[in-house]
Structure to design on (336 residues):
């Protein structure tokens, strides 16, 4: 049994097409930013409605498991403007969120923005390292196995095993082998690059296995294109043809897939941080859910929406870099 993911074929309607491509790169970027603002506005609105529509009194919802005292109740009413009309509360909430003020965690007795800021660094470092692992794995596997039957069969088996393995279980295996048995990497820490290697591998390999399937499919089609025949006639080495010419033509579907899957890295980081005992937003989110610390949960949700907007914008910019026709305002499909 092999895992086969077939990338959309370039040239089909809508494939690799950036909305508004004919308007030019500048307008595309502006439209993407406006779309991103709309996504963030929707996330903030849903967060506000989540507080207002939650069962029970709003003050009890915001307090979580903390005891309700007259002093704390007065502080919450003043902070959220609960004595004002709902429209005023909504406008005030949007204003505060736009300025990075997510309220106060009465469980942790700290401003939510301070809690998020103190834990975002380790999570972003883990996510970035996992993405790097995924991209390196995908590029190496795809370029070395494309149009090579035996190598492709081996790669399919490895990719299927990685995709089928839960990241937390892979993390436990990596810990058992490289930390407990060989003592190469620390068991649980957040100091230096060595402590980041195993968590990044556990989180990024499955993503890399999915991307490599799509990238290899696109690369095999690119190597059959007329330009590949022309490049071969120049006596260019096969490795250079694949890396310098074929890879760029095959990258658009893989870039699209990567943009969609990166959001899953943040979700996977929750479990990986627990397995490796790392600080980060994952552990904070789990603790906030268990203690019903709603302000922290809502702030993490809005932050996740912000990360999605940033990644989506970077994907669109990558389209412009990979396919010059989009910079010229062409509406044609992905790279051929």
């Amino acid at each position: 049994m092999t895992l086969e993911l077939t990338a959309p074929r370039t040239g089909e309607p809508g494939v690799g097409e950036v909305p508004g491509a004919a308007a030019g790169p500048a307008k595309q970027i502006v439209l993407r930013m406006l779309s991103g603002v709309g996504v963030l506005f929707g996330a903030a609105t849903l967060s506000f409605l989540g507080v207002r529509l939650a069962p029970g009194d709003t003050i009890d919802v915001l307090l979580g498991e903390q005891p309700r005292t007259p002093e704390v109740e007065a502080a919450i009413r003043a902070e959220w403007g609960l004595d004002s009309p709902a429209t005023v509360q909504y406008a005030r909430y949007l204003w505060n969120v736009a300025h990075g003020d997510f309220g106060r965690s009465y469980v942790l007795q700290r401003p939510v923005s301070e809690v998020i800021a103190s834990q975002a660094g380790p999570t972003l470092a883990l996510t970035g390292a996992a993405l790097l692992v995924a991209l390196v794995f995908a590029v190496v596997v795809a370029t070395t196995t494309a149009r090579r039957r035996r190598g492709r069969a081996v790669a399919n088996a490895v990719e299927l095993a990685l995709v089928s393995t839960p990241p937390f279980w892979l993390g436990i295996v990596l810990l058992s082998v490289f930390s407990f048995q060989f003592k190469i990497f620390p068991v649980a820490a957040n100091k230096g690059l060595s402590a980041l290697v195993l968590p990044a591998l556990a989180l990024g390999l499955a993503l890399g296995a999915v991307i490599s399937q799509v990238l290899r499919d696109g690369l095999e089609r690119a190597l059959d294109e007329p330009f590949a025949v022309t490049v071969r006639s120049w006596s260019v080495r096969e490795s250079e043809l694949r890396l310098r010419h074929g890879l760029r033509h095959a990258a658009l579907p893989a870039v699209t897939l990567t943009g969609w899957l990166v959001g899953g890295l943040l979700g996977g980081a929750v479990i990986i941080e627990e397995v490796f005992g790392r600080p980060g937003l994952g552990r904070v989110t789990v603790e906030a859910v268990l203690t019903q610390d709603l302000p922290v949960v809502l702030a993490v949700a809005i932050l996740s929406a912000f990360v999605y907007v940033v990644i989506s914008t970077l994907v669109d910019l990558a389209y412009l870099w990979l396919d010059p026709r989009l910079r010229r305002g062409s509406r044609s499909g992905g790279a051929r």
Q: What stands out?
A: The longest helix spans residues 238-275.
